Amino acid sequence: MIKLFPHSEFACLVAICVKAKPPETRYQIGSFKRRTQPLTARAQVERSFPLVRPHQQNDSVASIDVREGTFSGGLPYLVLGAGEPLVYLCGFTLDHRNPKPGLQRSLALRTLTPLARAGFEVYFTNRWPGMAADTTFADVAERHAEAIRHHFGAPVDVLGASTGGSLALQLIADRPDVVRKAVIASAAYALGPVAKEQQLKLLHAIEETGRYPTHAVLDVMSGKLRSRWLRALLTPVALLAAKRITIENPADTIAMLRAEDAFDVRDRLADIQIETLVICGAQDPFWTLEMFAETAFRLPHGKLIMYRKRGHTLIIASEFFRDVTAFLRDAS
Questions:
Q1: How far apart are CA 111 and CA 50, in angstroms?
Q2: Which pLDDT belongs to residue 103?
């Protein structure tokens, strides 16, 4: 069982794990591994924008068989691979449906294909369309739990990223009977201060106009691109693209934003008995490092992996896939 620390000590923990370590290192409870090759500017662009990565990765994605389906409760999913099921709860999306073929689906598949090739049957799962305005985060978790129970008939591994990570925590707090192991990526027991502020701005803008605001693109870029010159270079293109973004059903977007805004399971973590990996980047601007660390340490069977040079988009990193696979495969 991992020792629980008072909140005031998490700052010390983070300082030891992150600031005191050499560049390009990864922190993991119980072990230290060093990376010696710094990222070039080209590598930073390729990691932030997967579609411009080498052609062999395009071939890898194209060769994967992708099927579509709908869980009970109306939850849409894409499924790829074969092996042990892994329910992947996706991050925040404007529309409650599967990614459309083309750019949207290509981006999604780049986060899923390595897991499928590692021997998992990956179910990339979104929320249901037609979400009621008064839906709570507990309601969202309950519908996912029932979908898992109905479809699989036994506990399965669950990975949630960002908003999906929040949902995975709510799920293991409310319905641990449907989860074998959980991975919480780029999320914590509640929204971080920056995440909460930006989602509230997005919520209010969509409530007023029903459209995706251009400022939200800049907020997302600030979280995904640490390089100022890259942000400056891409800002005009991003603003132009934002004007073309449409929301099919703003009521769904608004309902989900409201539900996650109220999400907070901090006081329930100590009662969760599911083996859980909290995996995050030390450069993620949306949560404090203390929140990531506290989430892992308050879980009786929690484990923390923090990448010193990664941000919110760590889910496209090769080390992310390796460490998640190792955690889920570990029989100890």
A1: 10
A2: 87
Spatial distance between the Cα atoms of 152 and 268, rounded to a whole number of angstroms: 26
When the pLDDT of each residue in the chain is averaged and rounded to a whole number, the result is: 82
- Would you call 211 helix, strand, or coil by DSSP? coil
pLDDT digits (tens, 9 = 90+) for 63-75: 679 999 999 999 9
- Torsion sign (Cα): 42, 46, 51, 54: positive
- Terminal C-alpha separation, the chain: 14
* DSSP β-bridge partners for residue 276: 182, 302
Radius of gyration of the chain from its Cα atoms, rounded to whole angstroms: 19
Q: Pick the closest to residue 265 from 194, 205, 331, 182 (CA basis).
A: 182
* Long-range interactions of 324-328: CB distance < 8 A, separation 24+: 324/115, 324/159, 324/183, 324/185, 324/277, 324/279, 325/115, 325/118, 325/120, 327/181, 327/183, 327/277, 327/303, 328/84, 328/86, 328/120, 328/157, 328/181, 328/183
Its pTM stands at 0.79
Identify the residue with better confidence: 211 or 35.
211
* Nearest residue to 166 (alpha-carbon basis) of 145, 193, 185, 147: 185
Give the architecture-level CATH label for domain 7-36+70-206+248-329.
3-Layer(aba) Sandwich (3.40)
How far is Cα 21 from Cα 72, in angstroms, rounded to an integer?
47
CA–CA distance, 108 with 36 (Å, rounded to integer): 29
Q: Domain ranges for the chain, please list them.
A: 7-36+70-206+248-329, 212-245
Residue 37: what pLDDT? 41
Q: Which residues of 291-314 are buried (b: 16+ CB within 10 A; e: fewer)?
A: bbbbbbbbbbebbbbbbbbbbbbb
Q: What is the pLDDT of residues 235-285, one digit of tens each?
A: 676 666 666 678 899 999 999 999 999 999 999 999 999 999 999 999 999
Contact in structure between 88 and 118 (CB atoms under 8 Å):
no
